[in-house]
């Protein structure tokens, strides 16, 4: 009598790969191997920095892509979390620095950022389109000037220096490889959370609200509260990015949250694409690489012109960003189409 051991193992394995996606598995392998083959500079200045700004873009993508609300205040929300860490944690500016432990400080900073985001959302969701953009731009500008001029709470123009990442189990989380994996872990959690939320009942309701608010109100949904809660969730992502950003820089000042940084987040998100959560991370890699290397080629004065030209080209060629270009290229890369061209 012969039996076939574990006959369903291969189909089950293939089904798991299909559910996760071969692209996700390949990307995960690259991200895990990257810090072992890259220098400390590339690991932090390119890898970790791209992940942080990818998270900021992800918070905007969640609002704009699924909720139809374009925000220029995401760097402001991240800055609120960063300032909270500097004020209630430790800094070398001899201003505040209450020394809270990181395991209390991090959830508190994220919660404050999420509340601030919900407040911005509560004000802005009563408008739409260009008016939402202008309101959030006004919030970002007002926060920048308030932080720059207020010395009692924000220490004015100098801000706070000497903000250190925690040391946990003897590991300094600001060392290049630990910080990269910390950023990668947080980014993956945020990415998976947005994927899950987009397919949940709330996410589907939010997308239906984006498409037709009047019909959703007629069905009995509280459209305003749905949008405000979406802002709260976006604030959690931006708050986590803000904490990583202040640990990355070791400081925070009004320059961190200026209007230029707010526009950069929008550029990153649009270049990557608003149709899928992976888009902001692709856009972040492109922009960070250009900021790191192209600025030495074209000069600091012409760098913004280069970014603007790239932005215009991608918007005209593919309104859906890099993801849109990939969607257009996929049919031509399929085996059948390649054979038909021969």
Outline the structure in words.
There is one protein chain. Residues 337-342 have low confidence and may be disordered. The longest helix has 28 residues, at 40-67. The termini are far apart. The strands form two sheets. A two-stranded antiparallel sheet has the order 1-4. It is mainly alpha-helical. Strand 2 (167-168) and strand 3 (171-172) form a beta hairpin. Helix content is 74%, strand content 2%. Helix 4 (74-88) packs antiparallel against helix 5 and helix 11 packs across helix 12 (279-298).
Outline of this structure?
By secondary structure, the protein is an all-alpha fold. The protein has helices at residues 9-20, 22-37, 40-67, 74-88, 102-124, 130-149, 176-199, 201-211, 213-218, 223-249, 259-272, 279-298, 300-317, 321-333, 335-341; strands at 160-161, 167-168, 171-172, 251-252.
């Amino acid at each position: 009598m012969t039996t076939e051991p574990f006959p369903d193992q291969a189909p089950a394995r293939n089904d798991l790969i299909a559910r996760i996606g071969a692209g996700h598995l390949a990307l995960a392998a690259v991200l895990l191997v990257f810090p072992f083959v890259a220098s400390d500079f590339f690991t932090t200045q390119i890898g970790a920095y791209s992940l942080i700004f990818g998270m900021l873009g992800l918070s905007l993508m969640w609002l704009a892509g699924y909720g139809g609300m374009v925000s220029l205040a995401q760097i402001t929300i991240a800055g609120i979390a960063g300032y909270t860490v500097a004020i209630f944690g430790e800094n070398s500016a001899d201003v505040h620095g209450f020394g809270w432990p990181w395991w209390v400080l991090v959830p508190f900073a994220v919660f404050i950022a999420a509340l601030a985001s919900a407040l911005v959302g509560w004000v802005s969701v009563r408008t739409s389109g260009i008016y939402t953009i202008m309101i959030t731009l006004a919030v970002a500008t007002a926060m920048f000037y308030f932080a720059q001029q207020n010395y009692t709470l924000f220490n004015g123009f100098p801000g706070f220096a000497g903000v250190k990442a925690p040391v946990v189990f003897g590991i300094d989380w600001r060392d290049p490889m630990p910080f990269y994996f910390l950023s990668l872990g947080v980014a993956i959690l945020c990415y998976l959370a947005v994927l899950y939320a987009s397919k949940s009942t709330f996410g589907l309701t939010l997308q239906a609200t984006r498409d037709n608010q009047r019909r959703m109100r007629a069905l009995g949904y509280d459209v305003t509260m749905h949008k405000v809660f979406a802002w709260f969730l976006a604030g959690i992502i931006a708050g986590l990015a803000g904490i990583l950003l202040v640990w990355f820089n070791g400081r925070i000042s009004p320059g961190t949250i200026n209007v230029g940084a707010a526009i950069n987040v929008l550029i990153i998100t649009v270049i990557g694409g608003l149709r899928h959560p992976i888009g902001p991370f692709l856009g972040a890699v492109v922009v960070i690489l250009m900021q790191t290397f192209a600025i030495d080629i074209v000069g600091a004065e012409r760098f913004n012109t280069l970014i603007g030209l790239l932005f215009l080209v991608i918007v005209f060629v593919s309104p859906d960003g890099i993801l849109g270009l990939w969607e257009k290229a996929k049919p031509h890369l399929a085996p059948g189409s390649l054979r038909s061209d021969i």
